[in-house]
Structures are given as structure tokens and as C-alpha cells.
Specification:
Elements: H1 8-21, E1 61-68, E2 78-83, H2 88-99, E3 109-115, E4 119-122, H3 128-133, E5 151-154, E6 166-169, E7 185-189, H4 191-196, H5 210-224, E8 230-238
Length: about 240
């Protein structure tokens, strides 16, 4: 499966062109990998067959708090409010990941791809076993919201391939809406922390090698990228955020 290949300037141009043309097929990530591809797709191979989600139904709203090691752990936690009606299957999967402590147990999950003024991507567990456990795709949700600044969506490798990888938009990326990326919530506190997340590969918008990270887990990424930022504590609370 293709790994993301995305230069910031071209991505922003592509997003603007998509928004103005209203064309859902332009720069679609089905095409061969190129610098003009505005997708945010994970590189790992999706499961061979697509199953209807078997994740338990999530609450109508729930509140996620991610404490990170940004600024040596002193940065404000990232707080997100998830609204199930925006993307029911995506919300169910994220809630199941939270219940399973995917993002912090037994090891932290890293922010492995940072494209300034575009996205921060994460969702490979610190444990290779945990990542493999959740490598079962869910079907797509209709896009009911827009990928505005601060919203969270699942990354994909094509239709019906969402598993565990997500991204937070760090700009207004409405051009992603027509590509099928369905937001399921929004950062309500801690956006400054999101923007302060260290870019582990400043010379490349592809981010860290996702296959090596998937296979090597937390020990590998900490050895190769000692300045990478991660989620060190993850909690979820039913209902809207206080």
C-alpha cells in the first residue's frame, strides 16, 4: 500500500483546486503516488477483506484527553469532543481504541507525521501487537462535516480502509472533504499543544517510515527519533466535555 507523499505547498494548492472545482476524483489517493497527491493515507497494507464494523456503539458524545510529552510534558493536554452523529462508524472505532488503551498502554503512541499548516498524523501504537490487533478496516462514513482547523479525521489508504490512524487538521483543509475524509470531532482545548508537536522529519512531508515503526514499535521510534512527541496518557469520558 502506498505511503503518503505530500509536499506542503503542492498539497495546499491541490486542496484549493479541489475546493474550487468541487471535483471528488481529483488528486484522489487511488492514483499512483505523486507529490500532487493531497491525501493523508497510512502506508500499511489494509486487511484483505472489508468487514462491517463490529465495534460497540459509542456514546452520542464523548470527551478524549491526551496528555503528551510536548514541552517535556508541561504542555496543556489535548482535549477533543467527539460527536457520533458526524461519523458513527469512525466514532465507534475511536471509542473502542480508547477503551483498549491503544494510545498509551503499554507504550506511548507517537505523532509520526507532521506537515506544518496541514496535518498532524498518528495512530500507530507503541506495541506492534496492538497495532496488528486493530488492523481491521471499517467502512466509510458519509462526510457530514468539514476538515476545518482543529478537526480530527481517520486517515485512509482508499475506500473503506480506516483502521487506527488519525490526523488533526492544523489548517482549514476543506479540499479533503470531497476525498472522503469524514471528521468526527474537534479539539476544544490544547490546540497550541498540537501546533507545538515536534516535526520528526522536517526534510520530508512523508513522516517517519510507517512500516518500520509499525514493526518496531516504541523502542524503535525512540531509538531512531529521540525527539519525537507521543501520547503518554489517554483518557475518555462519556458525554460532552466540561
Amino acid at each position: 500500500m502506498r505511503s503518503p507523499s505530500l509536499l506542503l505547498a503542492l498539497a495546499l494548492v491541490a486542496a484549493l483546486l479541489l475546493a474550487s472545482a468541487g471535483c471528488a476524483s481529483a488528486a484522489r489517493h487511488h492514483a499512483q503516488r505523486s507529490s500532487k497527491d493531497a491525501s493523508v493515507a497510512p502506508s500499511r497494507t489494509a486487511a484483505s477483506s472489508v468487514h462491517a464494523s463490529t465495534d460497540p456503539v459509542a456514546p452520542d458524545n464523548y470527551c478524549i484527553t491526551w496528555t503528551t510529552n510536548v514541552a517535556n510534558g508541561t504542555a496543556e493536554p489535548i482535549v477533543l469532543e467527539i460527536t457520533r452523529k458526524l461519523a458513527p462508524l469512525g466514532a465507534d472505532r475511536l471509542y473502542a481504541l480508547m477503551q483498549d488503551r491503544f494510545f498509551d498502554t503499554p507504550y506511548p503512541a507517537a505523532f509520526f507525521r507532521v506537515v506544518p499548516k496541514f496535518v498532524v498524523q498518528f495512530g500507530i501504537a507503541g506495541s506492534p501487537f496492538e497495532t496488528a490487533k486493530w488492523n481491521v478496516p471499517i467502512q466509510d462514513d458519509p462526510v457530514l462535516g468539514s476538515n476545518t482547523n482543529g478537526t480530527i479525521s481517520f486517515a485512509t489508504a482508499g475506500p473503506n480502509t480506516r483502521t487506527s490512524q488519525l490526523f488533526i487538521n492544523t489548517a482549514d483543509n476543506a479540499g479533503l472533504d470531497s476525498q472522503g475524509f469524514s471528521p468526527l470531532g474537534k479539539v476544544i482545548r490544547g490546540m497550541e499543544t498540537v501546533l507545538a508537536i515536534n516535526n520528526p522529519t522536517p526534510g520530508s512531508s512523508d513522516g517517519i517510515d510507517q512500516d518500520k515503526y509499525t514493526n518496531g514499535g516504541y523502542r524503535w521510534i525512540e531509538a531512531q527519533y529521540p525527539m519525537v512527541n507521543s501520547i503518554i496518557k489517554s483518557t475518555v469520558q462519556d458525554g460532552v466535555c466540561n
